[in-house]
Design a protein that fits this description.
manganese, 14 helices, hydrolase, alpha+beta, Amidase_Cbmase, purine metabolism, Aminopeptidase, binds manganese (II) ion, metal-binding, binds glyoxylic acid, 9-stranded mixed β-sheet, Alpha-Beta Plaits
């Protein structure tokens, strides 16, 4: 009886998904003999409304999911409620083990690539077709929160559980991916894992000589975390078309969904991020003895450049242009010593790439003119990354939209101002993102919070979207 029930559910769900799937390439034909056979087998006409009832079987185990989010947050190098989880640290390795165990417990076959991108696969009935993928990251910047990225990894594993519990059977295989180092914290560049998956030869070359703030090389750090083949970076690259779709679930990290009491955000585009490193060098000296006209203060050059960043961003005239100086270091860092060296890291983004690029040009001009006027040397001006924006795929947007409608959840289309691994997955696969509200839009700080009900809604929309894409 149990066996018959689950086969029945399988058919009901599969047929429901196929018949309602906006990305279904094969148009439904009422005379289709397969449909007739399915109707005979199930004993029900397959287009009647009671098939909608099967959607209520998409139930999220919210209690377990919350417990997992809390457990994962305990792998942290800063006190709760903050979370700090840096690439290849002991806590990062623990969180990787935790994710792999959960993937295995969900029946996924797990593999890791040379830099530790983790893939958990649910093999579909047509494994030769390009799979559908989903996932996010679990690394966390210093003193951040426990939802950024984590919701898209634990939520993706739970989405698989949801589909398994509802007896759904995928046609295309489904991959859950935990990406290595979405955050730029340790090696100064974000989305290491997804950038490499997208085939960035430039990054692969750069990583051969990259060191962290303690002069530990990328290769050494990766090997210490157990990735002994890390030098074979080109093995990480994916061919374009390796996936038929990639969908990332994430907290919004902005206030719009909460303010508008909307359950789901469907991302149409991801803004273009860029980051720049700047070093100034002056002669330093005694804070009392060197008179003001004789100084060439590297610290003041940095301060002036930070203000110039703000000025150029505001001059763009668009609310979509943003700029931040999140790192500003002075050497030697003594109250009674004029800074002889300064180091800034500048982050600037815009949904409009040209406008963002013109801000970058102006920042460079300011750095040159400040160094000339203050008699300090501009010893480094390096654009670390200058990425284009990415557009979501229309068919994935439609799949997420109809999933939200069928689940009777309010949704809106929106852009992502934060970057995500999805920005780089878009280079090898059609891409889409699903946002959920978070408290006051807080993110990258310990107060980051999302309710388990919102998370569960996001997981359901993800599960249904994956099911539709898997059958397409
Ligand atoms: C991602 O963490 C970002 O900075 O947008
Ligand atoms: Mn983040
Ligand atoms: Mn994130």
């Amino acid at each position: 009886m149990a066996m018959r029930f689950s086969i029945y559910m399988l058919l009901v769900l599969s047929v429901y998904f196929i018949s309602n799937c906006p990305v279904n390439l094969a148009h439904r034909n009422e005379d289709d003999p397969t449909i007739k056979t399915m109707e005979e087998f199930s004993g029900y006409p397959i287009h009647e409304s009671h098939f909608l009832n099967s959607l209520s079987s998409l139930s999220v185990d919210a209690e377990t999911l919350q417990k997992q989010i809390d457990e994962l947050s305990s792998f942290s190098d800063s006190p709760a409620p903050s979370v700090t989880r840096i690439l290849y640290s002991e806590k990062d390795v623990l969180s990787r083990r935790y994710i792999k165990n959960l993937m295995e417990a969900s029946g996924l076959s797990v593999r890791e690539d040379a830099i530790g991108n983790i893939f958990g696969r649910w093999t579909g009935s047509e494994p030769e077709l390009a799979p559908v993928s989903t996932g996010s990251h679990t690394d966390a910047i210093p003193y951040s929160g426990k939802y950024d990225g984590v919701v898209g990894v634990l939520g993706a594993i739970e989405a698989i559980n949801v589909l398994k519990r509802s007896s759904f059977k995928p046609k295309r295989s489904l991959d859950v991916i935990m990406f290595t180092s979405e955050e730029p914290t340790r090696f100064g560049i974000g989305c290491l894992g997804s950038r490499l998956l997208a085939g960035s030869k430039e990054l692969a070359q750069q990583l051969e000589k990259t060191v962290d703030g303690q002069n530990v090389s990328f290769f050494y750090a990766a090997k210490s975390a157990g990735y002994m083949n890390v030098e074979k970076l080109s093995t990480v690259f994916l061919e374009k078309g390796s996936y038929s779709a990639f969908v990332e679930l994430h907290i919004e990290q902005g206030p719009i969904l909460e303010e508008e009491a909307t359950s789901i955000g469907i991302v149409t585009a991801i803004a273009a991020p860029a980051s720049i490193k700047v070093d100034f060098e002056g002669t330093g000296g005694h804070a009392g003895a060197v008179l003001m006209p004789k100084r060439n203060d590297a610290g003041l050059a940095a301060a002036e450049l930070a203000l110039a960043v703000e000025k150029h961003v505001l001059e763009s005239g668009s609310i979509d242009t943003v700029g931040t100086v999140g790192i500003l270091e002075l050497h030697p860092g003594a109250i009674n010593s004029i800074p002889s060296k300064s180091h800034l890291e500048i982050d600037t983004r815009d949904i409009d790439e040209e406008r963002r690029n013109s801000v970058i040009d102006k920042i460079y001009e300011s750095a040159l003119s400040i160094s000339k006027r203050r008699g300090v040397k501009l010893s480094e001006y390096k654009i670390v990354n200058q990425d284009p924006p990415a557009l979501s795929d229309e068919l994935i947007i439609k799949a997420a939209e109809s999933a939200s409608q069928e689940l009777e959840l309010t949704y809106k289309k929106m852009i992502s101002r934060a970057y995500h691994d999805a920005l780089f997955m878009a280079r090898v696969s059609p891409m889409g993102m699903i946002f959920i509200p978070c408290y006051k839009g807080y993110s990258h700080k310990p107060e980051e919070f999302a309710t388990i009900d919102h998370i569960a809604d996001g997981v359901k929309v993800l599960a249904l979207t994956l099911a539709k894409l898997s059958l397409s």
